[in-house]
Specification:
alpha+beta; Lipocalin; twelve-stranded antiparallel β-barrel; 2 helices; 19 strands
Length: 383
């Protein structure tokens, strides 16, 4: 009897220690897996911290041609939304009413059969919404490929006046929507200071004529009838020409403060598009100051001035006594002030917003005055 008790006790002890060893092995394996996961996460965080030290404070959301520069083989992708609103008229830098424009602003086609001497169809307000997904892929430490394809929607409210005087017949709304001009090009990290506090990036981007130039809609005519016509140049969805966008961007930082400046020029590589006209060249200069009250939040203040030439050439199907049919009523000088914020809500994920208003405008001919623009941008980096 005692022998059986002793045997059973030994057997239970062996099983107990055997299972204990098994449990210890399982715990060791689990601990090892957990350690590997923690170490991998720590390495990723250290890598992101190194990249963050190499990058500027997040640039303003509305800034073109300046992107976070990933390491070789990595990429940043995202999507932006730009909203532009206009209302009221400017003749140069002077505000005028639609009735004043109807009485004094010249009709580009005056003297041709049936054409009155002054404008008859004049915009009261306009808005545009642009959604642009983008990608930025680093093919080396110094060189990155960028691409974007915008989706555009435009709307304008037009006021029509009777032929002999300045009596308003009424208003109607015209719109257009579709793909804009695709953009693809290179960013080159020309200079990167050893302390990463001063950097220069060169932009060389091509714009392909993928946006429509033949958008039409139904408009109220001076004879109080409705007619489908080709929309004004500004309501079309693309430039129709191959364009080069060349830029030079400098940015710096020290502690919680960041700053930068950029020159960006858009140059038409063709004298005219398939419809016989081309937008004027455009240059802009901008400077900004950033402050980061916390590691995940960056605020910015930016000043931008833009100068654009008028349209060259004429589309024979954009015709009549409308303000937008006159190629001289495009381009001019504009200075805007923008405030923004960028929030890194998760590692390598940023949400930015920027709101801009004009502080000075001197436009060619007669044009709608800019009220404001709003940009919202989401960026996601993949490491």
């Amino acid at each position: 009897m005692k022998y059986k008790i002793f045997t059973h006790t030994c057997l239970a002890s062996v099983l107990l220690f055997s299972n204990a060893g098994s449990w210890a092995s399982d715990d060791d394996a689990s601990s090892s897996d957990s350690y590997k996961e923690r170490e991998a996460l720590a390495q990723k965080i250290r890598k992101m911290a190194r990249m963050r030290r190499m990058l500027p404070l997040s640039p303003p959301a509305g800034l073109s041609g300046a992107f976070a520069f990933p390491d070789k083989g990595q990429f940043v992708t995202g999507i932006g939304l730009r909203r532009i609103e206009k209302s009221g008229l400017l003749q140069g830098s002077t505000s005028i009413t639609t009735a004043q424009a109807a009485a004094t602003a010249p009709n580009y086609f005056a003297g041709q059969p049936g054409q009155p001497p002054t404008l008859r169809v004049i915009p009261r307000s306009a808005e545009a919404t642009i959604i642009y997904p983008f990608i930025n892929y680093a093919i080396s430490k110094e060189l990155s490929v960028v691409a974007s394809l915008p989706l555009i929607k435009k709307k304008t409210v037009l006021e029509t006046f009777n032929p002999p005087g300045t009596a308003s017949i009424g208003t109607n709304e015209v719109s257009s929507s579709g793909l804009g001009d695709a953009k693809i090009g290179l960013l080159y990290k020309f200079y990167n200071a050893p302390d990463r506090k001063h950097n220069i990036i060169l932009d060389a981007i091509f714009s392909a004529p993928t946006g429509s130039l033949t958008e039409t809609d139904t408009s109220l005519t001076p004879t109080n009838t409705y007619k489908e016509t080709r929309l004004a140049y500004g309501m079309q969805l693309g430039s129709g020409t191959w364009d080069a966008i060349l830029g030079l961007t400098y940015w710096g930082k020290s502690g919680q403060w960041g700053w930068g400046a950029q020159f960006l020029g858009t140059y038409r590589l063709e004298s005219e598009n398939s419809e016989g006209w081309s937008y004027g060249d455009k240059q802009s200069v901008t400077g900004w100051l950033s402050y980061a009250p916390s590691p995940t939040l960056v605020t910015s203040l930016r000043l931008k001035t833009t100068s654009e030439d008028s349209i060259d050439g004429v589309d024979p199907k954009i015709y009549g006594p409308g303000l937008g049919a006159n190629p001289d009523n495009y381009g001019g000088d504009r200075t805007v002030l923008a405030v923004g914020a960028n929030w890194m809500y998760a590692p390598a994920r940023n949400l930015g917003i920027e709101y801009a208003v004009p502080i000075d405008e001197d436009l060619n001919g007669v044009q709608l005055e800019h009220d404001s623009s709003l940009v919202i941008s989401w960026r996601n980096a993949f490491f």
